[in-house]
Amino acid sequence: MGGGFAPGSRTVSTAEGAIDDGTLPRIGSPAPGAIGLGGKGGGAQARSASIGESVVSYASRSMGQRVGDGECFALADRALRNAGAKSAADYGPVIPDGDYVWGTEVTLANIRPGGIVQFRDYSCTVETVTETDKDQTRTERVEERPHHTAIVERVGRDGAVTVLEQNIPPGSPVVRTQLYFAGSESESGGRKTTITVHGRVWFYTPQAR
Q1: In 3D, which of 101, 91, 142 has the Cα closest to residue 1?
Q2: Measured between alpha carbons, how far is 125 from 95 in angstroms, rounded to an integer?
């Protein structure tokens, strides 16, 4: 399906077998409009920022709780509706295992707090190798999201994106997770970090009803 990112560019993971029962399939994105804080028109910018703040606030207040039926879709759906924004069902019929549309599709560079991330077969591996005069140690963290939806809380300068999500692992409440959507390598002070990303993800800016 168009609009996703090819393996090796961006990705996220979900507990295997966890399938949302809300939000709609990617049958098409709405016409491009003002995106995040970079669109034209002060009113549109302020409205978009206000919606984003409301979405993040709702998800943050839900930390440690299960929203709705506990599926990852429910968190995004309720946060958007609470903010007066359109949800997946506003863009077409909702079907299980669909690549849902949540607003205006944007690139990773244009994602803002309150944006929605839709995952498909996403996995991210962060490998850290630390060398000293005596030995070498290696650690690895893997995040997987086969079919998942999450809310962007903040975007870091180092490429890390902090999301608020639930049902990761299945049955878990709303939690905060740091994910990466682009592969990279960095080295500092005897420590080398390699980030590898696979799968497809879509980024959306919510739109007012």
Answers
A1: 101
A2: 30
What average pLDDT does this structure show over 30-52? 60
- The token pair at 65 is 């709780």
SS3 of the chain: CCCCCCCCCCCCCCCCCCCCCCCECCCCCCCCCCCCCCCCCHHHHHHHHHHHHHHHHHHHHCECCCCCCCCHHHHHHHHHHHCCECCHHHHCCCCCCCCCECCEEECHHHCCCCCEEEEEEEEEEEEEEEECCCCEEEEEEEEEEEEEEEEEEEECCCCEEEEEECCCCCCCCEEEEEEECCCEEEEECCEEEEEEEEEEEEEEECCEC
In angstroms, the CA 184 to CA 132 distance is: 23
Q: How far apart, in whole angstroms, are the C-alpha atoms of residue 82 and residue 94?
A: 19
Closest C-alpha to 143, from 192, 193, 179, 99 = 179
| Per-residue pLDDT tens digits for 115-125 | 999 999 999 99
Closest by CA position to 104, among listed 30, 44, 24 = 30
